[in-house]
């Protein structure tokens, strides 16, 4: 792109200061002849968090347009490509550049996403700087549960301790986001079943979509280990906060006066506190990692993928993606053992201990195979020869 001059491609005057967010979107759709009566409905299609991300993109795009004398609402595809390339060369990650593209599509039209030049550009972005998973590993929930059972007994009198214990247990047993847990209303909690407590979430959440069911959280009564029973912890929390909450219907309230409903960010901070106290590396794992830890542990203990999917609120597509984390024999993986063994021969040395492939393109395959390898290791006491023997036996049965 050396010598490329955006001014030659578009002679419009630079844009002035813009009111970002919804006002930018309203103006863009007005210019595309959308009736004013429909603008509020169109703006309502965007979640608040999505709009916050788009506002950042709008500000970067506005500065670029002002610096290069480009019309904010009528830029050409070459100008957009130049802008996206500039953003990428600044070290921006693929996901962030993709978010910027989505924001530009709102104000410039769908031509941005459908243009073959932009599509080819993003394929290049992906190959040069592929998005990496947030977590390449996870932690064992039993570590946190054991810590809670020792240091957080059921007869706690501290509101902060009871609150943090309850939030953490709900996060582990439901495998839902902090956003979902923050939406729990006391009115929607059903105590009528003697085996469990059920909680309906009628509010819109991140995974809400047309035709999909809203979450129904199930908290079973753990008779064998009442000290880490999420249902009992919830009852204890409700009893302790009954006199403090007044007319607040939201389940979780602040732990200090004045008592008010708390956000998902506050819940996440409480869970992270428990993780840190338990010995989990919180510089690597956030509260959201409880979702990964819970589902991974459930699958390791033989829980069906469909049960995990319905409990955690995964879509069918997400469930297919998450099968990569559960790549073990006898589960839902479609690949044959022969192909898995071929994958090991391709990326591992003969001892099966050292990964030979360091390319980022192989990261996902390497991670998926590692889950399979760890499963074998659990059953063969870490012996490499035993692992290969298991693979040979399974292949023989398969054939």
TrEMBL record:
MF term (GO), any: DNA binding
InterPro entries noted in UniProt: DNA_brk_join_enz, Integrase-like_cat_sf, Integrase_catalytic, Integrase_recombinase_N
Biological process per Gene Ontology, one example term: DNA integration
The Tyr recombinase domain, residue ranges: 131-339
Keywords: DNA recombination, DNA-binding
PANTHER family: CORE-BINDING (CB) DOMAIN-CONTAINING PROTEIN (PTHR35617:SF3), PHAGE_INTEGRASE DOMAIN-CONTAINING PROTEIN (PTHR35617)
Protein name listed in UniProt: (diamondback moth) hypothetical protein
Organism: Plutella xylostella
């Amino acid at each position: 792109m050396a010598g490329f001059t955006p001014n030659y491609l578009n002679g419009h005057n630079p844009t002035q200061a813009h009111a970002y967010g919804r006002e930018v979107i309203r103006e863009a759709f007005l210019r595309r002849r959308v009736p004013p009566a429909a603008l509020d409905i169109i703006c309502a299609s965007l979640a608040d968090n999505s709009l916050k991300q788009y506002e950042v993109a709008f500000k970067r795009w506005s500065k670029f347009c002002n610096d290069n004398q480009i019309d904010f609402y009528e830029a050409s595809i070459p100008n957009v490509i130049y802008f996206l390339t500039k953003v990428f060369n600044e070290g921006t990650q693929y996901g962030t550049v993709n978010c910027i593209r989505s924001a530009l599509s709102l104000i410039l039209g769908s031509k941005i996403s459908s243009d073959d030049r932009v599509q080819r550009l993003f394929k290049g972005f992906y190959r040069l700087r592929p998005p990496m998973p947030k977590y390449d590993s996870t932690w064992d929930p039993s570590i946190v549960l054991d810590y809670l059972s020792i240091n957080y007994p059921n007869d706690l009198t501290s509101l902060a301790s009871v609150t943090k214990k309850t939030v953490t247990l709900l996060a582990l047993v439901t495998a839902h986001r902090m956003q979902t847990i923050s939406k729990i209303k006391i009115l929607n909690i059903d105590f009528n079943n003697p085996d469990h407590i059920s909680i309906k979430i009628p509010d819109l959440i991140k995974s809400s979509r047309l035709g999909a069911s809203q979450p129904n959280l199930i908290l079973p009564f753990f008779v064998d280990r009442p000290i880490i029973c999420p249902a009992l912890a919830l009852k204890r929390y409700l009893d302790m906060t009954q006199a403090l909450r007044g007319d607040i219907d939201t389940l979780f309230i602040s732990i200090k006066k004045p008592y008010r409903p708390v956000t998902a960010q506050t819940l996440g901070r409480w869970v992270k506190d428990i993780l840190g106290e338990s010995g989990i590396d919180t510089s690597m794992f956030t509260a959201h990692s409880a979702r990964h830890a819970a589902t991974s542990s459930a699958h390791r203990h033989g829980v069906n993928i469909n049960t995990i999917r319905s409990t955690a609120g995964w879509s069918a597509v997400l469930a297919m993606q998450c099968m990569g984390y559960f790549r073990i024999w006898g589960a839902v993986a479609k690949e044959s053992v022969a192909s898995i063994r071929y994958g090991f021969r391709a990326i591992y040395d003969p001892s099966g201990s050292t990964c030979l492939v360091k390319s980022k393109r192989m990261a996902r395959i390497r991670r998926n195979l590692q889950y399979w390898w760890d499963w074998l290791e659990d059953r063969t006491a870490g012996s490499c020869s035993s692992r290969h023997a298991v693979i040979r036996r399974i292949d023989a049965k398969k054939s």
